[in-house]
Amino acid sequence: MSSSHPPLFWAPPITLHLVTVITRCRIQHRPLHQHLFYELSIMVSGRCNWILDKGVHSLKAGDALLLPPGMRHGEHVPDGKPCSIIWIGFDANRPRPNWCNRVISLGDDVGEIIHSARLLQQESISNEPFSTERQTLLLQNILLLLTRHAQGEEGETARPSPLNDRQREYMESAAHYFRQNLGDCLTIAQVAAYYSLCPAHFSRLFQLHHGLTPSAFLHRARLEHSARLLVETRLNIKEIAGRCGFSDPAHFCKAFRKFYGKTPSCYRESFAFEKLPAITG
Asked: Cβ contacts of residue 251 below 8 Å, gap of 6+?
């Protein structure tokens, strides 16, 4: 029997997808895009505007913004003045907190949160023993402190999920399988059969849990992975298309431009940022 109390947002399991610390960022305008995971943005210095489908959030140094999966957004640095930003992408199998999409002032904890984020970046590329466990602890600390400032002394009531525990576990497992096999020729019927579900019922449960149909989720996951490969590797367009499940590079370029608002080559060029050096000592 499940507990009557909603799970804490920072409690495991949480899965880190990315952590990027960028300084001297001069984004004039980044086209609207979206992710399949939560994106936490922390302003280290300067100012930056987050453009959403409905409204704009202006963040200054010491502010944070948590965006839920699937929310379209784009960043814009006013007047091109350089700023420093930390981006953290993660999965949390929890009801969405009601302070998502709200600017949070980190107050006196900003120093600890930024330090934890930079250590998290180090651990994400580390081969040291227990690195994964330390990543989880650092991310938990960041989310705990963020939640404290977001909620203050008032508790938060989580929205009940329409799925039971086993169904949620299945849908999280299916999403993980999609992400781990983006280059394969996957069919919804095959994945549904693994969970002993018919394709229609599987698709309905998946959409209730993730807010997207399985096909839309897989398509977006492939495009998001291709975007990461464009930024983080020197693979050419054809290689990236193949690794992300697109047999035709021309079809990949068309889908990428429709989703991100620019060609893969232009997207790669737009990420010519100077990254902060790794922390020593």
From this structure: 241
| Strand ranges in the chain using DSSP code E only, listed in sequence order | 14-25, 38-45, 47-52, 55-60, 63-67, 73-76, 83-92, 103-105, 274-275
What's the one-letter identity of residue 254? K
Is 247 in contact with 184 (CB distance < 8 Å)? no
CB 142 within 8 A of CB 16: no
Q: How far apart are the C-alpha atoms of 16 and 222, rounded to whole Å? A: 18
Residues of the chain with pLDDT under 50: 1-6, 153-158, 273-281
What pLDDT was estimated at residue 28?
62
Q: How far apart are CA 16 and CA 9, in angstroms?
A: 14
Torsion of the alpha carbons at 77, 15, 38 and 97, rounded to the nearest 10? -130
**pLDDT, tens only, 175-222:** 889 988 999 988 999 999 999 999 999 999 998 887 789 998 899 889
Q: Which residues pair with 60 in a beta bridge?
A: 47
How far is 241 from 252, CA to CA, in rounded Å?
A: 6
User: Are 113 and 40 spatial neighbours (Cβ–Cβ below 8 Å)?
Assistant: no
Q: How far apart are CA 203 and CA 166, in angstroms?
A: 16
pTM above 0.85, yes or no: no
**Cross-strand pairs, 125:** none
- CA-to-CA dists, residue 250 to 38, 55, 96, 206, 242, angstroms: 30, 34, 37, 30, 11
